[in-house]
Amino acid sequence: MKSLVLLSVLICVANASVSRWSKCPEITGIPDFQLNRYLGVWYEYANVFEVFQIWSTCVRATYSDKGENVGVVNENINYISQNYRNVTGAARPAAPGNKKKKGEFIVSFDNPPFQDSESDKGGEPNYRVVSTDYDTYAVLYNCKSGFLYNSESLWLLTREQFPSQELVDETYSLMRNLDLPVESLVKTDQDDCQKMPKLE
After folding, report:
1. Nearest 5°: phi and psi at 93?
2. Conformational region of residue 144, where left means phi above 0, alpha means psi within -120 to 50, and beta covers everything else
């Protein structure tokens, strides 16, 4: 039994974000989500550790209108190699037709195995916009229930590559009030981004 617990913890550390031994908080995407205002370019100010983002700097996400879905382009510079990288995918509403129009999506990418960005099959949302003013910041959160633990993902995105400290302080306070794992956030390096393609 001890071996099973240890293995579960190691898997959690290897793949996720933050371990939450209590149940996931009942946090949903914001209602009346205005997707058209959310589209465009966002910069990653901070996130909790995600294995797929290891060694990523200058992280930028661009969301575009693809009819019923949202086109997703995530870009970064690899800290070790200094090479530019990007991955494309799609986000689809987790509950299309829901009157509350919550900011909850199922995001999948083109390259990783076991994902199909063209799929329209059901599933659990893995991208929840829990707070945004559309113009300056967005807080994204997900909590995945597991057998022995739950894993949390958290991102703070900003429209400006270098947001004001006042905005950062306000959003961190907001996240603490929502009982999100703020203390596990790590600021994303947005310096030395010359190799990032220029925005049109």
Report:
1. -55, 135
2. beta
Amino acid at 12: C
pLDDT tens for residues 2-45?
333 333 333 333 344 555 456 788 899 999 999 999 999 999 99
- What domains appear along the chain, each with residue ranges and CATH number? 30-187 (2.40.128.20)
CA of 109: how far to CAs of 89, 98, 145, 153, 185, in Å? 4, 24, 22, 17, 24
Count of positions (residues) in the chain: 200
Q: Which residues are CB-neighbours of 17 under 8 A, at least 6 positions away?
A: 48, 49, 50, 151, 152, 153, 154, 181, 184
Q: pTM higher than 0.90 for the full model? A: no
Express each pLDDT in 47-56 by its tens digit.
997 765 777 8
**pLDDT tens track for 168-187:** 999 999 999 999 999 999 99
Query: Distance between CA atoms of 128 and 145, rounded to whole angstroms?
Result: 15
Q: Which amino acid is at 184?
A: S
